[in-house]
Amino acid sequence: MSVAQLAGGRVAAVVRKAATRDPLVIAAVVVVVGVAVMAVFGQALAPYDPDAIYVGPVSAPPSLAYPFGTDDLGRDILSRVLAGTAPSVIGPVIVVVASSLLGAALGITAAWFGGAVDGIASRVIELIFAIPGLVLAVLAVAMFGKGLLAPTLALAIAYVPIVARLIRAGARQELGKPYMAALHIQGVGSAAICFRHLVPALLPALFAQTTIGFGYAMLDLAAISFLGLGAQPPASDWGVMIAGGQPALIAGAPEQSMFPALFVVLTVLAVNVLGARVTTWAERGER
Amino acid sequence: MSEVVLELDRVSIATPAPAGGSGRTLVHDCTLQVHAGEALGLVGESGSGKTLSTRAVAGLLPEGFTVGGTIRIDGDDVSLLPPARLREVRARRLGMVFQTPRAHLNPFRTIGDFMTEALVSVAGERADAAARRAIDLLDEVGVPDPSRRMRQRPGDLSGGLLQRVMIAATLAMDPRILLADEITTALDVTTQEEVMAVIADLRRHRELAMLFITHDLPLAGAVCDRVVVMNQGRTVETLPAGSMRAEARDAYTIRLLSASLPAAEAGAGTVASDAVAGVLAQVAPAPILRVDGLRKVFRVPAATGFGHDEFVAVDDVGFELPQGGSLGIVGESGSGKSTTARIVCGLETADAGTVTVKGEDWTRPARGARGRRRRARIAQMVFQDPYQSLDPRQTVRECLTEAVALHRPKASRPEVTARVDELLANVALDATLADRHPRALSGGQRQRVTIARSLAADPEILVLDEAVSALDVTTQVEVLTLLDGIRRSTGVALLMISHDLNTVRRLCDEVVVMRSGGIVEHGPIADVLDRPAADYTKMLLDSIPREGWVPRRRRPARTGALPSVATSATPVPRGGTP
Question: Which molecular function term from Gene Ontology is one that the record holds (chain B) (predicted)?
């Protein structure tokens, strides 16, 4: 789903509005694009080998040679933050994309067929809802071993009910409107009604939920890595780095935890801001 | 001349100014005076600025709107009063009632909570005293069994009753002037008459002045002393209500007056009958649509809160629609007329009875898209709310292209485009509007789009479910004329559902009068409307506002939101769900 589609094809107008009125959105776009570039080219941009130890002094504060300082093994923190972008960002993206697709499919199915199908789908949704995402992720690690794959898939499942409920409610409301009855009488095929009319109506809400979910997934995955259950040292995942910087934090060298944490916070904030604004524009455009 | 309780002097209202620009001025010059005890009608089409002006008086303009000119309430210039004092003046001297009472009441709180809130928090009364007074007020506006109503929630009451509750609530502060904004527009004619009768009583007993906002000129003429006509943000003239027709000078007023023909005159204007009668004589008498013994029962939550009751929406309804003919179904809300139309179009499943179209059984809704498409080429439907019946994300052209491509799958791209242009021309819609979204169209333009869409399938039957009820009077006339023209040129048969007898009279040859799910009267339009046999039809006709009309309370108010619940001993066939 693209921003262009959401705003009803009026991208130029939306961009112009953003530029004149909304510096926050511009900042958010800059951050998101920046993080995306870091995720793709991070390794190449890194001034040093992110895993090489003693490239500089141990636990050095930021300087021209080491802009974010170095950690307790003398690794360059900037290089590690850059290299860590991809693993830190791809996990949450997989979580939200998978949970949005599954959740939307489940929610639309429930609303469309109603009756017994709705009943069964809703019970399944409630069942998954009862299990907290982090617990499911930890359980998955216990069953399938440490690493990012198991918790990512576990979180994707745990996020399904949130999306499914939202989409089910939205779809039921939309299906009750007279234009749906008009399409039905016209003889428009069910697939066309669903994908050409119903799904576009639900996209703004889905997009908003996806961006919020991205933030939560990123924090959850960082927490799992922080707990030592996700990405394993010496990998340069942001969550691992925050965890690894703890002793240095007490020793008076906050850079090790601070910089990766800063990027986690910035990314989550930027994606949330963008999601909220785009949804608002799309909804305003419909009225 | 008596004291002026509300005065607007050259009031202008503008939208919020964007950075570095100035706002759009929506009201240019609204000047009017309401004297003590007087009822002043403020009439105009939607967009004329009448609601905006009223909201300026009540301080309910949206954020950032600016007001020029002077508004005086009881002689106090509102722009000079300190905010706290202004709130006090508005709370104690103004009462405001809106079009949609249901939207202004919290569905989770009881009527009692709502009624006593202002008394307790503004007037500082004790809860028990406030409750007693609330019951008195409900009684005064003719709400039956007020102490029971106090414990009920908005969902338990009908629209007419809720509107009375809103009126009773505004009376709590004993206001000097009532601002009534389209308060009966959402109600059907008989309920409208009851609400207007309540207001007439109140005004007599309390010497209450009223600013009555409506787009319905005959109604304003009937219930007000003077009428101010507003057009494009300007008050164009003020007329004594009794002699509007004789004294109207402004071209716009004259247009409004001619748009709202009184019932007696409209008889001569049955545009359809003569021309079509000739056509009818030639075609075979076989009806294109035949409905027989139709019955539909909905399950509704029981009054006791346990289990469910059965509500008979349609009961033994039968009629025939001749090929190229036009049949109107009239009745109040809850009479089952819309349910009948929805069954014909396959949106509901009947519990008993048959629907036969061109000799084919249509009682069960079509299964699958192909079946629906085949039926779509025979019967199409136009709904009441044009905005809700269009996909807000599609432009007019996208919407029509979809419909045309659906029914002409073999047509090439240019052929489809040509057909879309033809449809636009058929409904007299400017081609420059084709790339707009529904939100950028007026109500009348939107309804033209839905009509064009329904014509894309070249149907033989057009079902119009209150298709003009949501439109302004002048737009109503335009759309009705358009439909009549379409009927003449294409020979499509019309099944018109409406609560408004005048619109049915304009288009239909025959009429069926429905009440509580059953047919009360059925016959040629002139017979039924000019020489009604059933008392119910007479009452419907009597409740249409016209010159010299005095609203009367005709019957004890309904005791619930639903007119009747099945109590018959006959077994009810099980069928679809509501």
Answer: ATP binding
Of B374, B380, B390, the CB nearest to A179: B390
In the block, residue with structure tokens 């996700």 = A230
- The answer to whether B218 and B258 are in contact (CB under 8 A) is no
Contact B384, B333 (CB under 8 A): no
ipTM (interface pTM): 0.75
For residue A188, list chain B residues with Cβ-Cβ distance below 8 A.
Answer: 369, 402, 406
What is the model's pTM? 0.75
Handedness of CA B188, B191, B195, B197 (dihedral sign): positive
* Cβ pair B407:A187 closer than 8 A: yes
Q: From the list B370, B393, B453, which residue is nearest A200 (CB)?
A: B393
Does residue A234 have a cis peptide bond before it, meaning omega lies within 30 degrees of 0? yes
A196 and B CB contact within 8 Å: yes
Domain extents for chain B?
4-100+175-260, 262-366+459-544+556-569, 379-458
Per CB-CB distance under 8 Å, the chain A contacts of B376 are: 185-187
- The structure tokens 């003449």 sit at B488
Any long-range contacts for B243-249 (C-beta under 8 Å, 24+ apart)? B244/B217, B244/B547, B245/B547
Could you tell me if B530 lies within 8 Å of chain A, comparing CB atoms?
A: no
CA distances from A225 to A160, A217, A242, A244, B207 (A): 22, 12, 9, 10, 76
Query: How far is B371 from B381, CA to CA, in rounded Å?
Result: 16
DSSP per-residue string spanning B526-545: HHHHHS--SHHHHHHHHTS-
Superfamily in which the B4-100+175-260 domain is placed by CATH? P-loop containing nucleotide triphosphate hydrolases (3.40.50.300)
Residue A133, Cβ neighbours under 10 Å: how many? 22
Say which of B374, B388, B407 has its CB closest to residue A178.
Answer: B388
- Residue in A190, A196, A287 nearest the CB of B439: A287
Report the alpha-carbon angle B10-B13-B16, nearest 5: 155
Asked whether residue A7 carries a pLDDT value surpassing 60, the answer given is: no
Architecture per CATH, B262-366+459-544+556-569? 3-Layer(aba) Sandwich (3.40)
Cβ–Cβ contact A187 with B under 8 A? yes
Which of B46-55, B255-264, B495-504 has the lowest average pLDDT?
B255-264
Could you tell me how many CB contacts below 8 A there are between chain A and chain B? 73
- CB contact under 8 Å between B393 and A201, yes or no, is yes
B375-434 residues touching A, CB cutoff 8 A: 375-377, 379-381, 383-385, 388-393, 402-403, 406-407
Show the domains of chain A with their CATH numbers: 3-286 (1.10.3720.10)
pLDDT at A1: 42
